[in-house]
Design a protein that fits this description.
It contains eleven helices and 13 strands. By secondary structure, the chain is α/β, with parallel strands linked by helices. The structure holds 1-O-phosphono-alpha-D-glucopyranose. The site of 1-O-phosphono-alpha-D-glucopyranose has 14 residues, from strand 11 and helix 9.
């Protein structure tokens, strides 16, 4: 079984749900306490053993490429001022030279098309996808849990999480194989559908935005017709791949925050502030005070 070495992070989205903030800042760069949302997702992938990060970017996303570069003037200034703590942090957190690739999605044709744009860098090996809108707070990281499951069963694995039925139409939703035990973490699947009306949803298990897929998905994405919302959907191509290959849903142990929405972003900031090593205790006291006023 080939190891999971590469991850695709599609970062071309416009961030319309958090405008006007995203007019000049890529949504992936919005700070969650003191780090961009994207840094949490890169850390999750690194913890899972990912060695190469493929960012699928678009117009106005230059800040992402700069963020993952060294910043010589800033580093020199911090060194002069003896601020070694923060200096160590900003250099340690970025992936090493040669371990990032940036490919451009020239037209906003959908998530499936964004992933397909990474095909040449991915080549012929299984790979991970992390949707950076979603931050998952988990230990071990969500993708690390999935890689461990992958090492047992191989094939394709998709992270899922139960949601209330009145929210299923906002997500991809999976159908467990008839007779499978849905109380287990790993559930064999027999179908999946993107953004189904509530009445047609096959379960309440939403696709969270973490995937381990076999490279054959790229061939299917190359001729995938537009689906929900008029976009080329990853879910539709995965449903086709399921005809030939095994697919497991994985119920990870952790909490996910949808930073692409106002409330989800606020929830992420709050959750990470309350647990922050430097400000956590004060943040808790402050929040309690605010709520009791
Ligand atoms: C995408 C996927 C969907 C998944 C969701 C998770 O949708 O297409 O299957 O459930 O991410 O956040 P989007 O949110 O980009 O519309």
């Amino acid at each position: 079984m080939k190891p999971i070495r590469k991850a695709v992070l599609p970062v071309a989205g416009l961030g319309t749900r958090v405008l006007p903030a995203t007019k000049t800042i890529p949504k992936e760069m919005m700070p969650v306490v003191d780090r961009p949302a994207l840094q949490y997702v890169v850390d999750e992938a690194r913890e899972a053993g990912i060695e190469h990060f493929v960012f699928v970017t678009g117009r106005n996303k230059g800040a992402i490429e700069d963020y993952f570069d060294r910043a010589f003037e800033l580093e020199a200034t911090l060194r002069d001022k003896n601020k070694s703590d923060i200096l160590d942090r900003i250099t340690a957190e970025i992936p090493a030279a040669g371990t990032t690739s940036f490919v451009r999605q020239q037209s906003p044709l959908g998530l499936g098309h964004a992933i397909w744009c990474a095909r040449d860098v991915i080549g012929d090996e299984p790979f991970a996808i992390l949707l950076p809108d979603v931050i998952v707070k988990a230990a071990p990281s969500c993708l690390a849990q999935m890689v461990e499951a992958y090492n047992q069963v191989g094939g394709n694995i998709i992270a899922v999480d139960p949601v209330p039925m009145d929210r299923v139409s906002s997500y991809g939703v999976i159908a467990p194989k008839a007779g499978s035990d849905t109380s287990q973490a790993l559930i064999e699947m027999e179908a999946m559908v993107e953004k189904p009306p509530q009445a047609e949803a096959p379960s309440n298990l939403k696709i969270t935005g973490r995937y381990i897929l076999q490279p054959e998905i790229m061939k299917l994405l190359s001729d995938q017709a537009a689906g929900a919302g008029g976009e080329i959907q990853l879910t539709d191509a995965m449903a086709r791949l399921m005809q030939d290959q095994s697919f497991f849903a994985y119920k990870y142990d952790g909490l996910d925050y949808d930073c692409g929405s106002k409330l989800g972003y606020f929830e992420a900031v709050l959750a990470f502030a309350l647990d922050h090593p430097e400000i956590g205790i004060d943040a808790r006291a402050l929040t309690k005070n605010m709520l009791s006023e």
